[in-house]
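[recover] target loaded
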């Protein structure tokens, strides 16, 4: 057994240790992934063990085999807990990583940020958010990946197969340093039980969106998007947020941002969550103002908040169905309603049945999965009945891209429109973010200060705000509201204390805004005003994702079920200067429901970085606008024409509109 304590840098460079580390006890103080259902046959279990043991020297197989077998039977997966590092995992300043390539060090920083205990939902299971959104499948993959990144030079590319580091390959300086794929199943083997089985075998994983692509920045990322959504949703129903009620559910890795966003938008937010640990974490972090466990107390508190026009976020520790039903009986009007539980993962902890405690539900999930599935679908039907009652009283309900409408329809809930094809309710992209933001090229641009210094983040906030204010002076009326919202956001970013993990920021910007902000950052780095910057974005953007019930739900030419845009996006980013790229089967709305791609880009103040940012960011946004314009989205046609005026080398095929009367007659 390994006894000597190596330094952080030496542990990174060591990779998988030659001598086995001490066996680690199971830490009950942190949030763990639920047990996954047993799905492997006896022969497949042997294959899973064989697959796990191939990471280790043969001399250790006799020791590790019973250990890994126990993990497989106890948790449904082989996580290799013994190999969790002894050092604290968090986004260290880039200079603290042992690396021959600065770009590789930046990727190490982002990987560790995704697994920071303050950021990750289930850190010991290497899951960042969404219940099953993994950075890696096991700790051997983490150790080996970090070792490769420490050894890499700027003429190599690390190839990542669903969490497994296949190895370093020769490439060139302008190539991505890392190329990531996650969950890319053959279509005929892409059903829920297939994903469970092949994940248990250790040969693929669900990378979510920014989990498996190393670009998660904690709940701040979705706080901003949710703030913009809630503001625009109130505009849609022609109400001010103040004194009005937003009801939703979920306080996990992504959904935990909802109460904070409600506060920033200025409304009353009630958010239900059944997991006591994560509810307390959000309270301790200040992402919710109050926690209530009694429905009568909740009704009284909401009535008081409405009467006093408070801005307050309230977590109800319990099932969201009980909340909808109780507020209906109490005749409390809900202005906005949504849901952000992880319904992309309904059978493994993404959504919980009403009438059962958290622990009882977890036990049923693992030991009686068929009954658990029945209870989930019963709950969805009740959930929808309650929503429909509120909608009849004037509530505006929207799907928040978590597959709520889709799974409710699969449960035979009363969710379908009269035509039997569409849902009764729209997704937030269909109604809000698509026509108001994505069609115009506005999406979640983000950056991380590689120095780890809060003062660098403050400087970048100022730089970004100055750029946006200068651009807004000459902005067309069509995008002035988006510009104003984001200027207001960035001005309040420091006081809202949004940083969890890395020193990161997000705002919505179009291609021009992203390029101008990035160029200003690169100039500031060259001048020595700030350290290096890592650029990225959420996959939930203009171009990165083909998701028919979310990102591309406002595309009506029949192409929303195709995935050409996401594939072209990641290919185009690769040869235009991205530092790393990723493409996933699944993310946000579930494995098999979406193809999405992302990137990371390191700015180091060089002329080369300036060239890369211009050519890549322009493509990264306008690829999606062109597709949206071809779908006849009028905002996108406006935006792509404007882009062609600014760039003579851009030539886009524009649609001709057909007279409706001609088609009808």
């Amino acid at each position: 057994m390994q006894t000597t304590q190596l330094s952080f840098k030496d542990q990174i460079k060591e990779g998988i240790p030659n001598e086995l580390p001490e066996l680690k006890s199971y830490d009950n103080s942190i949030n763990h992934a639920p047990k996954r259902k047993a799905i492997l046959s006896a022969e497949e279990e042997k294959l899973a063990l064989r697959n796990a043991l191939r990471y280790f020297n043969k001399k250790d197989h006799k020791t590790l085999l019973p250990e890994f077998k126990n993990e497989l039977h106890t948790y449904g997966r082989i996580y290799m807990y013994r190999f969790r590092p002894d050092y604290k995992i968090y986004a260290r300043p880039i200079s603290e990583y042992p690396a021959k390539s600065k770009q590789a060090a930046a990727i190490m920083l982002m990987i560790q940020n995704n697994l920071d205990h303050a950021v990750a939902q289930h850190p010991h299971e290497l899951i960042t958010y969404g219940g099953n959104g993994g950075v890696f499948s096991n700790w051997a993959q983490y150790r080996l990946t970090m070792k490769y990144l420490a050894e890499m030079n700027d003429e190599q590319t690390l190839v990542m197969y669903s969490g497994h580091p296949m190895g370093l390959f020769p490439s060139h300086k302008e190539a991505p340093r890392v190329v990531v794929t996650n969950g890319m199943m053959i279509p005929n083997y892409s059903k829920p039980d297939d994903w469970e089985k092949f994940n248990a075998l250790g040969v693929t994983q669900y990378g979510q969106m920014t989990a498996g692509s190393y670009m998660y920045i904690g709940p701040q990322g979705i706080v901003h998007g949710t703030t913009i959504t809630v503001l625009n949703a109130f505009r849609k129903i022609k109400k001010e947020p103040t004194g009005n009620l937003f009801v939703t559910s979920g306080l996990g890795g992504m959904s935990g941002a909802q109460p904070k966003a409600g506060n920033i938008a200025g409304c009353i937010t009630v958010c239900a969550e059944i997991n006591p640990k994560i509810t307390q974490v959000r309270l301790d972090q200040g992402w919710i103002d109050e926690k209530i466990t009694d429905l009568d107390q909740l009704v009284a508190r909401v009535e008081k908040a409405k009467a006093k026009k408070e801005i307050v976020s309230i977590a109800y520790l319990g099932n969201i169905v009980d909340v909808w039903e109780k507020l209906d009986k109490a005749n409390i009007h809900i202005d906005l309603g949504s849901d952000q539980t992880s319904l992309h993962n309904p059978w493994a902890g993404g959504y919980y049945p009403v009438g059962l405690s958290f622990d009882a539900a977890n036990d049923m999930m693992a030991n009686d999965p068929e009954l658990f599935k029945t209870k989930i679908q019963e709950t969805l039907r009740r959930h929808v009945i309650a929503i429909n009652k509120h909608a009849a009283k004037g509530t505006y309900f929207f799907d928040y891209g978590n597959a709520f409408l889709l799974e409710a329809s699969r449960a035979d809930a009363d969710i379908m429109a009269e035509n039997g094809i569409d849902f009764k309710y729209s997704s937030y992209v269909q109604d809000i973010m698509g026509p108001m933001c994505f069609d115009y090229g506005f999406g979640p641009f983000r950056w991380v200060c590689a120095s780890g210094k809060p003062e660098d983040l403050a400087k970048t906030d100022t730089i970004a705000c100055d750029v946006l204010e200068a651009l807004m002076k000459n902005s067309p009326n069509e995008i002035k509201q988006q510009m104003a919202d984001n200027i207001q956001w960035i001005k309040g970013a420091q006081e809202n204390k949004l940083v969890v993990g890395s020193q990161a920021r997000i705002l919505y910007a179009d291609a021009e805004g992203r390029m101008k902000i990035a160029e200003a950052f690169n100039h500031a780095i060259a001048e020595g005003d700030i350290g290096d910057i890592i650029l990225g974005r959420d996959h939930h953007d203009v171009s990165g994702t083909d998701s028919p019930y979310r990102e591309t739900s406002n595309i009506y030419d029949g192409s929303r079920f195709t995935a050409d845009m996401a594939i072209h996006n990641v290919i185009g980013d690769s040869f235009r200067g991205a530092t790393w790229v990723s493409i996933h089967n699944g993310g946000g709305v579930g494995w098999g429901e979406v193809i999405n791609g992302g990137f990371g880009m390191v700015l180091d103040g060089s002329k080369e970085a300036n060239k890369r940012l211009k050519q890549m960011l322009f493509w990264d946004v306008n690829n999606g606008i062109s597709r949206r314009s071809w779908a006849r989205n009028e905002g996108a046609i406006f935006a792509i024409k404007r882009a062609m005026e600014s760039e003579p080398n851009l030539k886009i095929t524009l649609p001709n509109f057909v007279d409706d009367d001609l088609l009808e007659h």
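[recover] notes: DSSP finds 22 helices and 17 strands in the chain.
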